[in-house]
Each structure stands twice: as structure tokens, then as C-alpha cells.
Write a structure and sequence with these properties.
The chain is globular. The protein has a 4-stranded mixed sheet, covered by helices on one side. A hairpin with a 2-residue loop joins strand 1 and strand 2. The protein is α/β, with parallel strands linked by helices. The longest helix is centred in the middle third of the chain and has 17 residues.
Length: 106
């Protein structure tokens, strides 16, 4: 863990929302992140993208939240993708086997 405070910025363009994650997505940040993402994830009309470029750390709690978002969006048949995954995060996604379910947006 790097100790970088977690924060989120959102950018909306018509029906697309890009959520930029900054810092450490861990147990300490989980409640805040879930609360912020709830309304966005539930709106199936929105194309949702998570930009992980500035994500410095993610633990199992953070990965669990991403899996929950993925499942909900899949059930809704709603758009969900990720972008700019740092190598250290990609390595965790590969090790846990979730890489194949997370569609990179190019």
C-alpha cells in the first residue's frame, strides 16, 4: 500500500460518464467509492468507463467492488469498460483472473 488518499473525479459527456480513480482503492476508501458509484452504476442508459491511470493501489476490497460493478452492468446489459490500467494493477487483474471480464476501452 502506498498511502495515497483516494479520490474520484467524474466527467460526463452526453450519455457517457468517465470516472477517474486517483490514489489507493482499498478497504478505507470502499464505502466512499460504493456511495459515489451507486447512482451511476444503476443508470443503465449511461455508458460507464473507469479510468485507472492514476490508481496507485488496489486491494481485494477494491477488486471486489469492480467485480460488483461488472456484474450489475452485465445484468443490465449496460456498457462498462476500463481505460489506462497501470501495469501493477493489470498484473493483479491477471493474477486474479478478472482481466478477461474487464473490457479495455481504447
Amino acid at each position: 500500500m502506498s498511502g495515497n488518499k483516494f479520490s474520484v473525479t467524474t466527467q460526463q459527456d452526453n450519455d457517457k460518464v468517465v470516472v477517474h480513480l486517483h490514489g489507493d482503492l482499498d478497504l478505507a476508501a470502499a464505502k466512499e467509492f460504493r456511495a459515489l458509484m451507486g447512482p451511476i452504476v444503476e443508470d443503465a442508459a449511461i455508458d460507464l468507463e473507469l479510468d485507472l491511470e492514476r490508481l496507485t493501489y488496489i486491494d481485494s476490497t477494491g477488486i471486489g467492488i469492480l467485480i460488483s460493478i461488472l456484474k450489475m452492468r452485465h445484468e443490465q446489459q449496460a456498457s462498462f469498460g476500463i481505460a489506462n490500467v497501470p501495469p501493477h494493477v493489470q498484473k493483479l487483474f491477471d493474477m486474479t483472473g478478472i482481466s478477461k471480464f474487464l473490457t479495455p476501452n481504447v
